[in-house]
TrEMBL record:
This is Uncharacterized protein. InterPro entries: T4SS_pilin (IPR043993). It comes from Candidatus Dojkabacteria bacterium HGW-Dojkabacteria-1. The chain crosses the membrane at residues 48-71, 92-114. Keywords: Membrane, Transmembrane, Transmembrane helix.
Amino acid sequence: MKNTLAKISSGVVATYVAFSGLLTEAFAQKRASDWLGGIDGVGSTLDSWIITMLNWAIGLAALAAVGMLIYSGYMYISASGDEGKVEKATKTLTFAIVGLVVCFIAVMLVQFVLTNILK
């Protein structure tokens, strides 16, 4: 099992390394404000930067929750009837679903604050 997982993960890493060079860009001519989307005051404000960071954080949390959903499904399938493993997989699944619900509530809360309170 560990050997197969190691082969799969090393294959994914090798594929990423092989193709990551195709999408790179030379950043020698870019300014820091171009990277940060105008954080220096040109075309951006602090509140828009905070909103962008919140959206990124919520997106990463949702991605982690989906990853945990997939992992808990794998744990459940590979439990082979072992009660301890099934219970652990069920707890992981429950917490992953709770995490997704929290992410969706956070998105709705941020949108509510943006549209009703900050305007």
